Amino acid sequence: MKLTADQLRDKYLKFFASKGHAVISGASLIPENDPTVLFTTAGMHPLVPYLLGEPHPAGRRLTDVQKCVRTGDIDAVGDSCHLTFFEMLGNWSLGDYFKKEAITWSYEFLTRELGFSPDQLSVTVFEGEGHVPRDDESAAIWKSLGIPESRIYALPKEDNWWGPAGTTGPCGPDTEMFIDTGKPACGKICRPGCHCGKYIEIWNDVFMQYNKTADGSYEPLKQSNVDTGMGVERTICMMNGYATVYETELFAPLMAKIRELSTARPDSEEAAVRAERIIADHLRTSVFVLGDPKGGVKPGNVGANYVLRRLIRRSVRYAKLLGIGTGYTRTLAEIIIANYKHVYPELEKNAETVIAELVGEEERFEKTLHAGQKEFDKVADALKLHGQTTLSGRTAFKLYDTYGFPLEFTEELCLEQGLAVDRAGYEEAFKKHQETSKQGDATFKGGLADNTVTTTRLHTATHLLHRALQHVLGPHALQKGSNITPERLRFDFSHPEKMTPEQIQQVEDMVNEQIKRNLPVAVTTMTMEEAKAKGATALFAAKYGEQVKVYAMGEFSMEVCGGPHAATTGELGGFKIQKEESSSAGVRRIKAVILNVV
Ligand code: SER
Asked: Measuring CA to CA, which residue among 472, 475, 491, 450 is closest to residue 581?
C-alpha cells in the first residue's frame, strides 16, 4: 500500500482513537522539566510523570504524534534510515491494558491498516537478565497471531530494553517490529538489529514496569504501562518500497534542491550522496529546533545551543564539499517550512527567526571557516612531517575557541587525515577556560534539595516570574522560551528594551512577596477553552476540547501547564534575578536562582 506521511499520521490516530485512546497534542521539542536531556527524544518523554503514576487529564489511553531529536546516531546519518529529527507515532496505556492488547493492535495496524504482509514481519523480545525473566508472554502472543517461531528472536538487554530517556525514569523490556526489505542477508549474524539494512525497525512496544533511580537500581513502578513508538519516516519509506527515507515526500523536494545547488562532486559518489543526506537531515532538524513553539534554543556554545550549532556548521561544511554557495540555508529552510507548515504551523509562524538564525550562523561560520581550515592544515602538515598522529587538546580547543570548530568537527577533519585528537586534553583545556570565566560569579543558591525537587521549584518560580513581569512591564511581556537546569532558571520574554534596575527590583520583590505568602499551588483539569475563559495563560495550542491541567498560585498566577510543581510557593525560599540581557530582537532574557527550603 502506498501512503503519504499525512495519511499515515491520520490513520494511526484514528485507529487508536477507535480503541479508546484520547488523541493528545505532541509536546515541544525542548523538554519542560527534564534537565538530564537536551531534547525530547521519544513520545513517552513528555509523559514521564504519568508513567510514574500521576493521573493524566485525558485518561489512561493516549495517542499522539511527537517531534523527536536524537543526536546519539549522528554519525550514522547518511545511511538509508538514520535521522537526527523524526516524528514518532505513539500509543500509551497508563496502567491500563498491557502486552496482549498492545501487541495485538500493533499486529492489526501493521497488517490490516498498513497492508504489510505478515511474511515481511520479524519481531524481537527480551531474552531476560538478572531478576527480569525472558519475555515468553510476548513471544507467545506473537505466535498466536501467526508469526512463526523462526521469526521471533529473543535478544539481550542492549537490543530489547528501552529507556530511561534521560539518566533516570521509567523503562522496561520491549518487543520490536522489523520489516524485511528483501535484501540478501549480509553474511554475518544477520537478524533484526543487524545494521546491514536488511531489517528495518519500524515500531517498538515497551512494557514500562520499572523506574531507574539515580543510584542505577531498578525499582518496580506502581503501574504496568505500555509505551509504543513508530517512526513516520521509516514506515512510509517501507510502505512505498523506497530504498531510503530521502526518497519520501518529506525529503524529496529538499534533495532535488540540494542537487540543483551543487556545483562540485567529490571523487567518490558515495561521499557525495552522504553529504547530500547530511545537509538535508541536519537542516531539517535545525529548522524544527529553531521553529519550536517553546523557543529559546539558538546556536551557541553549551547544551542544546551547542548541538544546534554543531548541526548547522556540519551542514555548512558538507555544503562546501558539494560547492553549494552561501545563503543556501535560507533556500533549504524555505522548502522545509513549506513542506511541513500544514502539520506544524509554528514553523511558518517563526519562519523569520528560523531563517535569520540559520543565515546568521552560516555567515559567522563562513567567516572563520577559511582561517580555521588554514590553521588546521598548518598543524596537520606539521604533525605529519614529524611522524606524529595526535592533534593536541590545546590545538583542538584553540580551533573551537578562536575559529568556532566544534570538537566533533575537528575530529572529523583529523579522521580524514589519519590523525586522532587528544579528547581528554581538549576537555581539560575547556574546563580550565570555564573555571576562569566563572570566577567572580556570586552564587545565591543554598539549601540541600536534590535536583528533581529543585528543578520542580524553579519551574514554579518561572510561573511567578512570568506573571510579575506582566504586572511590572505590561501584558506584552509574554514567555518566549524557558530552560531550567538544577542551578538556575532562564526565561525569555517579549519586551522591546532593557529593563531598568528599578523594574528588575520590582519584579524580584513581587516574586519574593508571593513566596513569603506561601501560596498553595493548586491544580485542576479542564478543557483548553474553559481554561482560557477563566483567564489562564496558555502558551501552547491544544486540540479543541482537549483536557489540560491548570496550575494556580493563589490569585496571583494561573497557567496551563503539564507540571509538576512545588506544593506551595514557600518551598522556593527566595528568588534572585542574576542577569537581565538581550536574547534576540524584541526578546529579553532573565537568569534567576532560588534559595530552596529543605
Ligand atoms: N520509547 C520507545 C522508543 O523510543 C517507544 O516509544 O522506541
From this structure: 491
| This prediction's pTM | 0.77
**Cell numbers for 268:** 567518490
Distance 194 CA to ligand 1 centre (A): 18
- Assign 295 a pLDDT band (cuts: 50, 70, 90): confident
Q: Are 305 and 299 in contact (CB under 8 A)?
A: yes
Residues 567, 517, 464, 38: what is their CA dihedral angle, to the nearest 10 degrees?
-40
> Atom 3, ligand 1: which residue's CA is nearest?
229
Q: Which three cell numbers stand for residue 200?
A: 528495518
Which numbered atom of ligand 1 lies nearest the CA of 43?
Answer: 6
Q: What is the pLDDT of residue 598?
A: 60
**Residue 253: is it exposed, middle or buried by C-beta count within 10 angstroms (0-12/13-18/19+)?**
middle
Output the nine-digit C-alpha cell for 466: 512570568
Complete domains list, the chain, with CATH: 5-246 (3.30.930.10), 266-435 (no CATH), 452-595 (3.30.980.10)
**Least-confidence region, from 136-150, 417-431, 495-509, 554-568:** 554-568
For ligand 1, say whether the CB of 47 is within 6 Å of any of its atoms.
no
The Cα–Cα gap between 85 and 347 comes to 14
The angle subtended at Cα 98 by Cα 95 and Cα 104, nearest 5°, is: 145
Ligand 1 close to Cβ of residue 43 (< 6 A): yes
* Residue carrying C-alpha cell 530494553: 161
Nearest-CA residue for atom 4 of ligand 1: 42
Provide the pLDDT confidence category of residue 437 given band limits of 50, 70 and 90. Answer: low
Determine whether the shortest distance from the Cβ of 204 to ligand 1 is under 6 A. yes
